[in-house]
Amino acid sequence: MRVMTAKMFGYLTYDRGNITLSESGKRVADPEQEKAARVEGFLTIQLYKAIYEQFKGGTLPANAGLETAMVTLGVAPKQKDKARQVFQRSATQAGFFQYGTSKLVLPSVKAMRLRLRQRQTRS
Questions:
Q1: DSSP code of 58?
Q2: Which residues of 46-81 are buried (b: 16+ CB within 10 A; e: fewer)?
Q3: pLDDT digits (tens, 9 = 90+) for 25-45
Q4: Is 96 within 8 Å of 43 (Cβ atoms)?
Q5: What is the dihedral of CA 56, 36, 27, 24, to 10 degrees?
Q6: Measuring CA to CA, which residue among 91, 115, 110 is closest to residue 36?
Q7: Residue-wise pLDDT tens digits, 42-74
Q8: Is the pLDDT of residue 122 over 70?
């Protein structure tokens, strides 16, 4: 289950029993690049990106409203509760709820990318 989840977020590839860490997976394992990689991984999931785009700059609806939005985006009605719970956990881990769970805020990763570029130019 964890392997398939990591594959969904783009952290690894799985082909014929071979598991390979992707570039994004290598970044999520690096403490200095982890935050940016988690944001990118979160937005890799089409449902999560659609929810982010639909509600960015505004307030997220209560759980029932969020579930309704997910159903309109293609989630099976019987799976809406589970999908919402997983979405909320993923958003928390990726840093989208840094200002509370009522808003999805894109985490600032600019400073991290700048530090990484500076380090790469020094090497």
A1: S
A2: ebbeebbeebeeeebeeeeebbbbbeeeebeeeebe
A3: 888 888 888 899 999 999 999
A4: no
A5: 20
A6: 110
A7: 999 999 999 999 998 899 999 999 999 999 999
A8: no
Cβ(25)–Cβ(11) below 8 Å: yes
Task: Answer yes or no: are the C-beta atoms of 16 and 22 closer than 8 Å.
Answer: no
What does the pLDDT look like over 82-98, one tens digit per residue? 999 999 999 999 999 98
What pLDDT, on the 0 to 100 scale, is given for residue 92?
Answer: 95
Hey, what are 90's tokens?
């993923």
Q: Which residues pair with 19 in a beta bridge?
A: 14
Give the rounded distance of the alpha carbon of 5 from its chain centre.
11
The residue segments making up the domain with residue 13 are 2-122
Q: Which residues contact 12 (CB under 8 A, 6 or more apart)?
A: 3, 6, 19, 20, 21, 22, 25
**Which residue, among 31, 30, 29, 35, has the nearest Cα to 111 in the 3D structure?**
35
Q: What value does the mean pLDDT take over residues 97-108?
A: 90
How many structural domains are present in the chain? 1
Q: How many residues does the chain have?
A: 123
